[in-house]
Structure formats: structure tokens, C-alpha cells
Predict the 3D structure of the following.
Amino acid sequence: MIYKLFRFTHYYCKEIASENLERITMYSLKKMIRLKKLAGVFLFIFFCAFVAQAKYIQGFKHLINVNRAVQKKIVVQILDEYGSPTAARIRVSEQDSIYYTPVAHKVDLKLDEGGGDVILDYNRKFAYVDGGCEISLPPTDIRFEVIKGYAYHLFDSIIHISSGVDSIKIQLKKWFEFGAGEWYGGDCHVHFIDAVTALLEMKAEDLNVCNILTSDPTSDQDRFSGALDPVSDSVHLIYVNQEYREDRLGHLNLLNLKRLVTPVKTMREYQYPLNIKACDEVHEQGGHVSWAHFAAWPGLEGPLAVVLKKVDAVEMLSTIDPFCEPIFVSDVVPDLRMNTGLSLWYRLLNCGLKIPATAGTDKMTNMVTVGANRVYALVHGVFTYQSWIDALNTGRSFITNSPFLICRADNKMPGDEMNIGRKNSVKIVTEMWSQLPVDRLEIISNGKVIAEKIIEKGQHYAKLEIEYRPGKSVWIAARVHQYNQDDTRDGVSFTQRRDFGGGPTLLNKYYGTMRPETAFAHTNPIYITINKKPIRSKEDAAYFIKYLHNSISWLQRSGRFPSEQARQETVSAFKQGITEFMKLAK
Ligand SMILES: [Zn+2]
């Protein structure tokens, strides 16, 4: 009974009234249940159900009225900055609760479908259109929201549909030009969509590369060809690649593959063979390996694969805010509470391991847009899939979910190395442009903030410039983000997935993503050595020695192996990793 009432309140508040009412209701209910105020809980549920029901009837009446009103077909055209028709994502709604589906688009779109249109924030539907659409609208005020990636202004306007209106032109404006012809953005981690769908969505999201990963839960293995998909054009490259998964060891994004790595369709039964074997197979065929969703899921084996130089990158922006703690390996990661996904990456860099970051959405449903997390790579020469992968391998890149970010040390870019004398200093300059609100731009040296700039509300551009004398060998990077405390107060739980009540942020409202995230970007490091001495940190090397010892304990205690020999082989690989970290501790 209580459960039914709870569901009833939840459903009507969410579907008919508003997201805010639903959030406030659920928050208050949980609080009262915690305080054991049961009478209050009952009263509250009845009250909310009553309000929601009233709203429902009101909404229902409104729908009937709207349907009775003469709807007319309107031609909507979407134009780019030059006035040419362009692909974009459009939401046409009335009072935010009534969504108008463009002609030929699916009306009963489901959250768990993989491609096509999207449903962000549970009820904010958007349609992908190429140049425009036809749509039947009533004669009233209609809200048009149009989005085309991060470099265009968000279009959000109320247009009155009067009897004289037959067509609407929406002119998008690019609010800045970002290194056109040099920087190319890609999503390293997409599932369940086909290449034709991906192409339209990429054009609409202003995304250049899409890696669709076939994997054990997908059924698209036959789409793998070991080459670019033929629907690709010169600035939109689609490549079907593979995610290789074992839940305890961790997952791998295998890109630029010529052949799939077995097993493809089944999740591995054992913690054997290790992922590093698959890494070798991929490198033999000229492929690229990144550790999938490393910040959320470094797995038992992530640090081992990095220290043995088996992976080319770690996917730092994917499925979790990088300031949060890893979530799937709490029994292995030492001092978890003090170690966010981001600090795990910093520790690896502090050991002198030059491991760049990449990004991807891990899109599996309609709740996320392609490229919501992406990596921009600086491509020298002609933009091809190979030249883009080469840029990822060298770390000439930055990861982002909306801000554009560049960093230079003297004339060096991320991924570059420079050697200076002990008394020398370098000039570090970082610049950022952000469509969504951010509030701090920072320069990081060996994981520590050495300079910061507070970004005022409404400010979309910032520059920070310092003269810095490192005194020892360091890595330097820039990051920009919005402190997520405001959202936490607003009932957003950054520790939970959004489908488990994590709540939406502004980023989620416009781009989706699996967990609550705020605007964030991070460049890859520039490596500065003093008299050619490598970057080292005893403390961080000791940290990973402990990590790998914990992994061995877990494998000895709970690991599944086909034979005793397989267990021995696995444990000795981890011991080799410990030896490598011990060398870095000197
Ligand atoms: Zn995965």
C-alpha cells in the first residue's frame, strides 16, 4: 500500500506536474522516513497525490483543448552561421510539459533505446534533424530550443504561432571559432547505435569522430569491418571498434582495430587471461587502447597495465564526475575516500608515467547525447582517423564536456616535453571558452593547483598567465570546472546514477550523461624536466604498490581461474607490476 502510494506520487509528480515538485517531494519523503515520522509520511503522500492529481486533470484538460485547437503544419528551417541548412538537435514544447514530435519522428520514444532522438533529464525530448523539419503546432506560444554542440549559442526562444505563420527560420550563431581545421573532437565510447544514426547525431552535435564499440552486451558484431565505416565523410569519421570487458579486472576501449579481440560476444568467465594480453594483441595490429571509464572503474588491473606501458590512455571523463571516488572497486583502491578518479590519474603522472587522458560517453541509451563527453585532439596535417589517433597517443589533446581549453608552457603544447635548467622559469598561459557556467580556471603542477582564476557569473572566456619556476621535474596541465557544491544543495547526488535518483544538473538538462556532472575540462600534461631528471614521487609509487598488493589479495581470495597455473601466471604479472613501481619509487 505504502509502496503503491509512493509510486503513485512519484509518477504523477514527475510525469504530469514538474521535475521540481517530484524532487522536493521525494527529498521530503525520504527525510521523514529517516526521522520515522510515519504519520507525516502518510499525510504528505496524500497531499502530494492530491496536488499531482489536480495537476494531472488540469494537464489532461489542456491536452484536450490543444488537440481540439486547429493544428497546422509548420516548416522549421535551421540555418548555420552562413545561412545554410544545418543539422541540429531541436526541442519544440509548450509550457515545458507538452512536447511536439516532428513529422516522421518516433512519438513513443523509449528511454532505453540506443539511437535516434533523445530524452534528457527524463522528460526533455529532443529530435535530431538535418536542416529542419515539419511539425504540427497549435496557434499559441511555443518554445523552441536548438542545440548544436559547444561552439554555438544555445537557441532558446518563445515563438507565437499565429494564423499567418507557415514557416520558421532559426538562425544559429557560432559564438567563437575554435582552432578550425586543427582541433577535432571525438567520442571514444559509444554503444548500440548504427553508423547512419551516428552521422546525423555527430553533425548535430558538432562532433568529428565517433567510436561505436561492439561488445558482449551488443549484437552489432557484424558491423565491424576493421576500417572506417563507409558513411563517414571528410570531417565526420565513424569507426566500429570494440569494448573488451571483465568486470573485476576492468574494461578496455580498443580503437583503430583491424581484427576483433576474442572473446567478443561473451563476458570472460575468469580473471584470466589479463587485459594486458588483449593490449598486446591490439598493439600488434597497430591499434590504440584506452582504459575504459578509468575514473569510475580502474579495476584490479588498471595501474598494472599503465606501469607495464600496455595502455595508451585512460578514459578520464566517462560515466562519473572525475572529482568523485571510483565506484566499482571500493574493496581494492587504497584510501578510497581521499582518492577521486582524478587523483588516481595524477598519482600515475606523478610517478613519471606519461599516460594521457581521453573521454567518451559510454552512451547506451537515449538519455545521453553522442559526444557529451569528448576529447579534442590537435591534428597536424590532414585530418584522418589515423592522424587523430596519433594525436591521442601523444596527448596533444584535452577532455571536456563543454569548455574549450588550451594550455601552453613557453611554446610547448600538451603532450610535448621540454628540458630546462634548475633556475629557469617558464611562462604558462591557459585560456578557456565555455558555453555552460564554470567558476574556476586552474593551472596544475604535479597534481597541485599553483594558480587559479575565479570566473564570474556570465563570463564565458577567461585567461590565466603565470611565470613559474618549477625547481624540479614536473608535469603541467590546466583544468576548468564548475564547483558542484551548488548542485549538491539543489538535491543532486553525485554519488548516484541519474536513474537511481542522482538528479540533473544544467549539463544533464542539455546533454544528458549517465551521472550528474557539471562543466569540466582538463588538458593533457606538458612535461618539464630539470636537467633531464625524470618526474618521480616515492609516495605515489608506494600508493600503487599497496593498490597492486590489494589486487593480489583479492585474486587469491576470490579470483576465478581455469587452472592453478593460470592463477600463478596472473599473480606473477601483478608482482612484476609491483617491481616496476618499486623502480619508480627510487
Ligand atoms: Zn564499460
